[in-house]
Amino acid sequence: MNVLVTGGAGFIGSHTVDLLLQKGHRVRVLDSLTPPVHRDGQLPAYVPRDVEFIRGDVRERAAWERALDRIDAVFHLAAYQDYLTDFSKFFHVNTVGTALLYEIVVEKKLPVQKIVVASSQSAYGEGKYECAEHGIQYPPLRTEAQLLRRDWDVQCPLCTHKMKWLVTDEARVTPHNQYAMSKYTQEMLALNFGKRYQIPTVALRYSITQGPRQSFRNAYSGVLRIFTTRLLSNQPPVAYEDGAQLRDYVSVHDVARANVLVMEDARADYEVYNVGGGRAVAVSEYAQMVARALGKNIAAQFPGQYRFGDTRHIISDISKLCALGWAPQVPLEKIIEEYIAWARVQPDVADYYAEAEREMLEMGTIRVSP
């Protein structure tokens, strides 16, 4: 098949490109090569040179028209990710860019056989909880007043008692921040346009994806990057809240496998799937794992900072995707080892945390409880 991968020079995109090539597909990449992921605007060396590359923005009609020529399947992975307050950009890139994809396919009657759209676990917000008295709840965002008290736990919206977190399936979303809302509107229009115009479409909600090629400068790329670069610089990892918040982490290799699976399997058409690691890990435990892997006896710090709009616990239920024959194969320990080995040999590896922290404090993205 002739396959287009938008964002194919990025983290998840490039690993998806590799797997597609291994399976004998012909691949075209559309990427804008913009900062902070691509600092110098050059095509990364890890992108195979036999891939057809088009430099362009998914907000531009001309870029889409050129990229979609003679294409059978599309992985739409290009996205805007950050903690900045330029709210409109999230929707221009993530939502409007996706609408433009379907607009051109429909308008020009292009023979696209499958579109796979990258969505996010962030669409769930706080996710699914259980109150001992009031049962299943999908709580709202924790209030700033609560966080300022360093009262981190999620409370029942009816009785304010602490609730028990549950794995979150695909049935209900409660997006809380600009990125989450833009990703959910993106998948909503993709699935609805796909059904209306008979363009088989799948949306994948990735958990926190980790692995080599993850940008050192992208503030959204998560704790593995932050903890590794801090520890390599002999600085302590810094964790928000009390470090007890739970997440699930998935290898980029397992994400690439999920991408290709749903492209090839018609049972996935017009469905949404979680793609996660299937294991709940506390942020403080994660810091210890990275320190052990690096041989560093440096404990994490918990200065009482919190990221405004962040979730307390979110673990995805991956049973729906597993029913198609997929399962995560790379354990977290291996994810960490592989990333460290890759990071050690990168010329631009450095501790960028202090600079990012200053910027996020100035913007009010990171706040400090007294």
Provide key terms for this protein.
370 residues; alpha/beta; Rossmann fold; seven-stranded parallel β-sheet; 16% strand
Brief overview:
With 370 residues, this protein is α/β, with parallel strands linked by helices. It has helices spanning 11-22, 61-67, 87-107, 144-148, 178-196, 223-232, 252-264, 283-294, 319-322, 332-344, 353-363, and strands spanning 2-6, 26-31, 52-55, 73-76, 114-120, 129-131, 135-137, 164-165, 201-206, 208-210, 246-247, 249-251, 271-275, 281-282, 305-307, 366-368.
- Per the principal axes of the C-alpha atoms, what is the gross shape? globular
Mean pLDDT: 94
**Number of E-type strands:** 16
| Amino-to-carboxy terminus distance | 57 Å
Q: Tell me the domain tally.
A: 1
- Main sheet strand line-up: 3-2-1-4-5-9-13
Which homologous superfamily in CATH is the superfamily?
Answer: NAD(P)-binding Rossmann-like Domain
* DSSP helix fraction: 25-40%
Q: Which sheet architecture does the biggest sheet show?
A: 7 strands, parallel
Count of separate DSSP helical elements: 11
Instruction: State Rg.
Output: 20 Å
Low-pLDDT segments, ≥5 res: none
CATH architecture label: 3-Layer(aba) Sandwich
SS-derived structural category: alpha/beta
Q: Report the order of strands and helices.
A: EHEEHEHEEEHEHEEHEEHEEHEHHHE
Strand percentage, roughly? Answer: 15-25%
